[in-house]
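Course assignment 3, question 2. Fill in each field.
Student: A.L.
Task: Predict the tertiary structure for the chain below.
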Amino acid sequence: NRAPVLALPAEITALAGDIVTIVPAATDADGDAVTFSFDASVSSDGTWQTTDADEGTHIVTVTASDGKESISSTVSIVLRHKNKAPVISLGDVYVEETEKIVLSPTVNDAEGDSYTVIFSTPFDVHGTWQTDYEDAGTYAVTVTATDSNGTSNSVVVQVIVTDKNRTPVFKI
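Answer field:
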């Protein structure tokens, strides 16, 4: 009986937090069925659900066995930093008709990237809306922050505009 011949990529590169899949190939000169096993965090099907904490280089041993003989080899898994989307904090807003609303979301980017903020209608590009006597109602407003690497996050806030009683107008 001869040991199987194992073929692996030398290196797999992915982003921390992604699923990494190791796809080994093997041949056996005797025609025996070959099974694979993996060490460390890799499951029996060759997958590894990485986390942000796994960033860096990891060496994984893969073993091919025909049931009688086995051979092992390593693959280097390089997990790069994954850009995180900005986090937006903004609560619901309650106002009366004719009030001016200025949305001021708190935006935090874990990497310190610069970001832009976009507001859906009826707000302008600065997050401002001057309400009028006809604006009573509930509005679902989307606020989106996009960092300088193109990663974005959105939140939907409720803007509740209550009816404001108008001063009566008398005609004589």
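Instructor remarks: Residues 40 and 60 are 7 Å apart (CA to CA). DSSP finds no helices and 16 strands in the chain.
Grade: pending
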